[in-house]
Amino acid sequence: MTETYLTIQKQINGIYKEKGSKFLSFALPVKDVEEVKMQLAAYKKEYHDARHVCYAYMLGAEREDYRVNDDGEPSGTAGRPILGQINSRGLTNVLVVVVRYFGGVLLGTGGLITAYKAAASDALEQAEIVEKTVDCNIEVFFEYPSMKIVMSAIKECQAQIIRQDFNESCCIKMTVPLANKSTLCDKLEKVVKRIIIS
């Protein structure tokens, strides 16, 4: 299973011009399909006067969840070339949108493929690529005397605390890099009452 993946740090815009047509490109980091839908709706609303709003996205550390959309351009001339640029950099959790303003001259199939590829490339070329860890959530329940051991294990395994609750007994919910999950569980299993992994 993949423990790290490459994505982009923040949204970056690009542009490509060909025979009067303008191709505005936007590359942005996304977490899931819901976020993709939200972003696409925003772009379609903002650029409602554009001829085409084409896109491609890749999601998940395993890079198996992807989609392309030509938005009325000839099949395979927009979404696929955009996805090709995401793939050539090995990125995931990325959405690339290319908005086309038609300039009056038909570009032909080859011209369109080149234009969408170049527009997507222009945005991704400028993006800061970052490596992120694949994380999982762990919730532990324990008694006060074990607090020091639990906190030490959390720090050692680079886990981030999401929520903590110290009432009758203690409960900490955290996110931990997948690579450190088994080490953390091994360190905690003797001192905690219950571990829930999600």
Return the CATH class of the largest domain.
Alpha Beta
Instruction: Using the alpha-carbon principal axes, give the shape.
Output: elongated
Determine the strand fraction and express it as a percent band: 35-45%
> What's the order of the H and E elements?
EEEHEEHEHEEHEEHE
> What is the total tally of β strands?
11
List the helices and strands and how they pair.
Elements: E1 4-8, E2 12-18, E3 21-29, H1 33-46, E4 52-59, E5 65-69, H2 79-88, E6 94-101, H3 108-126, E7 129-133, E8 135-142, H4 147-156, E9 160-166, E10 170-177, H5 181-188, E11 194-197
Antiparallel strand pairs: 1-7, 2-3, 3-6, 4-5, 4-6, 8-10, 8-11, 9-10
Concise summary:
The chain has five helices and eleven strands; from the N terminus they run E-E-E-H-E-E-H-E-H-E-E-H-E-E-H-E. The protein has a five-stranded antiparallel β-sheet, with helices on both faces. It has a four-stranded antiparallel β-sheet with strand order 9-10-8-11, covered by helices on one side. The chain has a two-stranded antiparallel sheet with strand order 1-7.
Give a structural overview:
The mean pLDDT is about 95. The chain has 2 domains: about 5-130, Impact, N-terminal domain (Ribosomal Protein S5, domain 2, 2-Layer Sandwich); about 135-195, Alpha-Beta Plaits, CATH 3.30.70.240. Helix 2 packs parallel to helix 3 (about 110-125). The protein contains 5 helices and 11 strands, in the order E-E-E-H-E-E-H-E-H-E-E-H-E-E-H-E. It has about 200 residues and is an alpha+beta fold. The strands form 3 sheets. It has a 5-stranded antiparallel beta sheet with strand order 2-3-6-4-5, with helices on both faces. A 4-stranded antiparallel beta sheet has the order 9-10-8-11, covered by helices on one side. A two-stranded antiparallel sheet has the order 1-7.
